[in-house]
């Protein structure tokens, strides 16, 4: 039976504006630190959110318009995370690493009415400005000169003229709040969208999952949050919302470099961040980090598998490194690899392996593996199946793309395109992407396993494995390796094969997984969010499919 509701009762819809209640009530004195040393407290953040809402109203922006942001990470982006959806408008975060043509497609497809843009991206926009079909207002992050009649002025000038009071309304919590576009390696980018309700629930579950970690990876209001994952990507994994709800000190790097990351950790005492493996590798290899005490710094790694060798390198520096797993379409949190007290007490080599696992489902996340007919497979640690999801914050589809949305949700589960094994304790072990697994002589070879084991070789900086055609076996694995500068002369294909052969003799991989071909390269192709681009690697080193 549905509960009775008193006429005067407040049903308290789950809206993004509610995430500001706690830091306001607790009178958080912590700072928002942004580009060029600008810093202000939470009371000023609330006032600036109100000003931005008034700017949009004063410019006559439609009540349900999409407002796009093309910017480096910073306090203005954080203000947009709140002000835009809190007025019942939709925030579009634009991937700055897409091509001009792809950006044009996403802006037109999302029907963006307003574009807030940093001057650094004007050369990228110049060839597509005339092709913007729905943009009626352009706001400059910094003032710039343009003959475009849609230019309304600079962000700060407009903010200075706006009121710092705004009565943010209540509305249906399932109202669309945000949209961003995936940067997959095939086809046009796809629009992923989220409601207020989904973002609030994801925020609360994020804090519940991290706040109850038994031995490591715990995040609290005393941490200093500094994202390296860009704010255009999956709400920076949801953490700007979570950090604001707790009233944490937040540090945004703008256009970051490894040197800036290290200097900011040193100056602002940053204690928690998240990124893909390639960025962690850059930070660890940065010369200015050599004398920095990184003990206890919490580093969440997602987006791609964490190699054991890189995990050990981070642990040797005292970094509390651990993995998470999800997709742009899942909010993104689904699986977090927090160690038990017993696991966290093991030796360094054991932990390096444990910390690269997929982990266990986060709070309120139903994660399973299924066969080709979407039948759920047992949690026996043996059966391999596709990883699928259900949680309150999974996107309900791709914007304006019903056919692809149905494929995403085939059988009532969100499909990842990844293969994995579920163990009896509920922990997930990723084995490979369906499209990246190598089939040799009728047997499956995990490229992720080979990459993780190869990364343990001290000369290896980065590694990727792809399948190459073979007349006898159908496919054989080929290693693509970037060596550390000091080891380029001493490491050969034979030493890499000997390294992997040792693991084969231990039973970690089958003997047939050891590659005949090892190619040393200067760099590995990445996607716009820093993942290994296996499609580009296959096209370059194998040829057209």
Explain what you see:
With about 550 residues, this protein is an alpha/beta fold. Among the domains are: about 15-30 and about 40-195, Rossmann fold, CATH 3.40.50.12780; about 440-540, ANL, C-terminal domain (GMP Synthetase, Chain A, domain 3). The chain contains 18 helices and 25 strands. The strands form 6 sheets. Strands 7-6-5-3-4-8-9 form a 7-stranded mixed beta sheet, with helices on both faces. A 5-stranded mixed beta sheet has the order 12-13-14-15-16, with helices on both faces. Strands 2-1-11-10 form a 4-stranded mixed beta sheet. A hairpin with a 5-residue loop joins β19 (about 415-420) and β20 (about 430-435). α7 crosses α9. The protein is globular. The model has no long low-confidence stretch (mean pLDDT about 90).
Which structural traits does this protein have?
545 residues; alpha/beta; Rossmann fold; GMP Synthetase, Chain A, domain 3; seven-stranded mixed beta sheet; five-stranded mixed beta sheet; 18 helices; 25 strands
């Amino acid at each position: 039976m549905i509960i009775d509701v008193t006429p005067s009762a407040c049903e308290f819809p789950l809206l993004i504006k509610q995430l500001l209640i706690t830091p306001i009530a607790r009178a958080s004195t912590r700072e928002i630190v942004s580009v060029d040393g600008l810093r202000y407290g939470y009371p000023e953040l609330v006032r600036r959110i109100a000003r931005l809402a008034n700017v949009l109203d004063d410019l006559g922006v439609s009540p349900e318009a999409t407002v796009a942001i093309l910017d480096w990470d910073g306090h203005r982006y954080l203000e947009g995370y709140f002000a835009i959806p809190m007025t019942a408008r939709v925030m579009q975060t634009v991937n700055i690493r897409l091509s001009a043509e792809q950006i044009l497609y996403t802006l037109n497809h999302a029907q963006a009415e307003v574009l807030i843009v940093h001057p650094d991206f004007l050369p990228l926009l110049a060839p597509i400005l005339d092709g913007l079909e729905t943009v009626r207002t352009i706001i400059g992050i910094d003032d710039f000169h343009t003959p475009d009649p849609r230019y309304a002025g600079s962000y700060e000038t407009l903010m200075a003229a706006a009121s710092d009071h705004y009565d943010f309304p209540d509305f249906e919590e399932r109202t669309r709040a945000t949209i961003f576009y995936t940067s997959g390696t095939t086809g046009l980018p796809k629009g992923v969208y989220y409601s207020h309700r989904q973002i609030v629930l994801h925020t609360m579950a994020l804090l519940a999952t991290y706040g109850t970690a038994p031995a490591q990876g715990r995040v609290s209001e005393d941490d200093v949050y500094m994202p390296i994952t860009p704010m255009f990507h999956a709400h920076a994994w949801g953490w700007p919302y979570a950090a604001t709800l707790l009233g944490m000190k937040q540090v945004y790097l703008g256009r970051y470099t490894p040197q800036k990351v290290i200097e900011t950790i040193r100056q602002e005492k940053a204690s928690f961040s998240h990124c893909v493996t390639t960025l962690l590798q850059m930070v660890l290899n940065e010369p200015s980090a050599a004398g920095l005490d990184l003990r206890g710094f919490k580093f969440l790694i997602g987006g791609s598998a964490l190699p054991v060798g890189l995990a050990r390198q981070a642990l040797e520096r005292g970094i509390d490194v651990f993995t998470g797993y999800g997709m742009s379409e899942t909010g993104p949190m689904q699986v977090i690899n927090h160690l038990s007290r017993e696991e966290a007490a093991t030796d360094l080599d054991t932990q390096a392996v444990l910390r690269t696992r997929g982990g266990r489902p986060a709070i309120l996340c139903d994660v399973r593996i299924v066969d080709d007919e979407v039948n759920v497979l047992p949690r026996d640690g043996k059966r391999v199946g596709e990883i699928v999801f259900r949680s309150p914050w999974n996107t309900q589809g791709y914007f304006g793309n019903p056919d692809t949305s149905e494929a995403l949700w085939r059988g009532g589960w969100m499909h990842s395109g990844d293969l994995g094994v579920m163990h009896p304790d509920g922990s997930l072990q990723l084995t490979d992407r369906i499209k990246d697994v190598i089939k040799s002589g009728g047997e499956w070879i995990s490229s992720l396993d080979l990459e993780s084991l190869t990364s343990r070789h001290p000369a290896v900086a980065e590694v990727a494995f792809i399948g190459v055609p073979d007349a006898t076996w159908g496919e054989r694995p080929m290693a693509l390796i970037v060596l550390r500068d000091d080891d380029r002369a001493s490491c050969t294909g034979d030493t890499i094969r000997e390294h992997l052969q040792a693991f084969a003799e231990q039973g970690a991989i089958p003997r047939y997984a050891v590659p005949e071909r090892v190619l040393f390269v200067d760099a590995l192709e990445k996607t716009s969010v820093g993942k290994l681009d296996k499609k580009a690697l296959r096209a370059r080193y194998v040829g057209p499919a």
